[in-house]
Amino acid sequence: MSTLNLYPYYEKLVREKKKYATIRLGDQRSKYRIGQRVNLTLGWENNNEKRLIDRVEITSVHFKRIKNIVKSDLKGESPDCLNKCAIQYVLSAIYRKIVSEEDYVTIIKWKYLKNGI
Asked: What is the CATH number of the domain that holds 8?
């Protein structure tokens, strides 16, 4: 089963099922597809110790420039990514490169499975 990994500081939002969206830099459409079930894990990027926290089903995958993101795209995102300007800073920190409103991102949304883990 494929994995969608989030940083550990999102754990509370995931456990409370308040986070059900993520924004990834670049085109991730071939990796994540609507209807696909994935393991939701928590872990740092260079750490092989990823912890399974839940199982989810992808409900939408959108590819667009940051400047074209609308408010509804951000529903289910974490508080640190609730506007286009913040998204650029957060993604710059995560990917360790300057991200601008011209960059393309993939917005992935999911629903939590009733039987989870």
From this structure: 3.10.400.10
Please, are residues 19 and 10 in contact by the beta-carbon 8 Å criterion?
A: yes
What is the chain's pLDDT, residue by residue, as a tens digit (117 residues)?
899 999 999 999 999 999 999 999 999 999 999 999 999 999 997 777 899 999 999 999 999 999 999 999 999 999 999 999 999 999 999 999 999 999 999 999 999 998 766
Name, in order, each residue with C-beta under 8 angstroms of 71's C-beta and a sequence gap of 6 or more. Answer: none
Q: Is residue 117 part of a domain?
A: no
Task: Render 28-95 in DSSP notation, one character per residue.
Answer: -TTT--TT-EEEEEE--TT-S--EEEEEEEEEEEEEEEGGG--GGGGTT--GGGSSHHHHHHHHHHHH
Which residue range forms the structural domain that includes residue 54? 2-112
Q: How many domains does the chain have?
A: 1
List, in order, residues 6 or more apart from 47 with CB less than 8 Å away: none
